[in-house]
Fold this protein.
Amino acid sequence: MTKKGTIRYICATNIRELCLFGLILLLAFGVNVRSGGSFLTAGNLNAMFVDIAILTILTMGMMSVIITGGIDLSVGSTMALAGMVSTSILRDSIHAQGIGIHPIWVILIAICVGLLAGLVNGILITVLNVMPIITTLGTMSIFRGITHLVSDGRWVLQQDMTTEFLAVATENRLLGINNLIWIALVVFVINFYFLGYSRTGRKIYAIGNSEESAAISGINTKRITALTYIVTGGMAGLAGVLFVARFAAAQSETALGYELFVIAACVLGGVSIAGGTGKVHGAVLGAILFGMLNNALPMLRISPFWQEAIRGLIILGSILINALVVRRANRKVIERRVAA
Amino acid sequence: MSLKSGGAVTVQADSPVSAHRSLQNERSFSARRFILQWEWLLLLLFIVVNVINASISPNYLVFDNLMHAFMVFSDRAILVFPMMMIILMGDIDISIASTMALSAVVMGVSYNVGLPMIPAIVLALMVGTTCGLFNGVLLAKFKELSPIIVTLVGMILFRGIASIMLENRAAGDFPSWFRNLGWGYVGRVPIVFIFIIVQALVFGYMIHFTEFGRNLYAIGNNETAAKYSGVKTDKIRTIVFMTMGLFAAISGIFLASRMGSVRPSMALGYEMDVIAMVVLGGVSNLGGKGRLIGVVIATFIVGFLRFGLGIANVPSQVIMIIVGALLIVAVIIPNIKATLYGSKWHKTIIKKRKGN
């Protein structure tokens, strides 16, 4: 038997993540060779990881929802809503006082908007017993519609934002690494502790494995489930404002279809849609793999019209391989028990 | 001797010799249950929508205008009935809009390459059915994958293939008779209206009066039980998803005929409208519950609502909010009703499904 805490134990329990990590390295070097060495440069990696950072923040929220056995299709719309509301307030403050509010307020407003959106989802799902997919399908279009109403059909453009706000996503680098990457790293570390080691985090896994057993064991399943949607909303709010800061424009079509990227990143990272399984570092690797594909496909001069289908094929391949691996593992367990 | 199993089979105690059994498979008529039917609420909503529309525009309640309104949402109405079958089984299909786009694009491209129109249409129907087959086989072979994730892959993949074929161009220049498919009339009734009436009758018969249809309810209520009762669940699931694909192709063809051209970005977001119509029609998204008549009324409600809001110059984003809210409210009301009137069955189903 391998002892807990040894390197061998860690390798044995994280075999899937190690494979994923190997695949990412392999892909990175492959793409680097094919693109003539322009992939693994500091500049490109920094730009790529900024995109991955936004995806990672969303994945961290979404994975807790998926672990409970739910799904949140409204994150893209929440991002647009939070980005639009916060930057509209920034613009109005510039027009009213001549000097914009501090970027930290903009980010906090966005997070609050996201939390509110998540609260709406959470109440609908836990208090009113509406299925997650129906709820978030509905709120997906409701939040998007509200974004349009808030914006009045106009965009918030670069001249409506303060340079301090734009600097959040572009400059202020610590160790030459972009702020967004640092933010994503902090979110990852907190989530790693929260889901893996905190009491509430373990309750989330318990609910995903069997809500009934969790309820019987004395877990307030409704409160915890609602919490996952609220946290996801907050993360979407944060990601939305960072997205707006990065692209220097907020509009009602911001992050359209982003929820599919996030779900795909979770699935690539080994978070099972059935609920109950999924590791935080696995999900991050999933986000990195997916973000890398988005960055590498144009670098390999693959026509943009091919990219969607390739993405679909890769998601398909990964979920099928994952299903087969899990089946094999389950069969092995049964065989071992029969032999013993 | 009295033997009771769940109140279904009763051996009458006072006739011991014949042991007369009455298999109670018909529920007795209850006035309360009759009045509390979801369909009455839908009918009321339908009338309200029409009254509002008529008060906004004086020309609304003219036969030709209503027929035109119907044409506008006909391509969604075609998708509603097969989607109802899928939701009855407790599944969901979010790839339908992409299937529409792919089959219409295949039709347009193959026609522009030189294939005659009729074979091009047949090809499109085959492509749509194949898309459905893809979803169905994946779901049948990989039981651990949920319909959401499988059809999500389909959603990305099918539209991706369409955009490989046509990039960002459009294909069109269809023969003039093809345009009549979507815009044509028989007398004063649009062709597509007749098509949907026939479709509704056929699907109504299939869902409510055939063994196949009853099996859908059985799968939706309890798939394991259905399977052990001899229902070929995999086969039925594959057939239903293929039907969905076929009708998505038909809908794509009608849409192409009305628009006059096809492009990979066509029919974006249709899946949400269609699911909203079905769920509003009283089909439980937990599976196993719902009637076709409710779905028909709900289709007309959403269709006329969109048309009326369009007349009133309501921006499309506000319509998005209203349809989204309608979708959620449609699920909340039966839940509240279940809590108030204590439908025990419904409560346990909710509990059980959330436990999964």
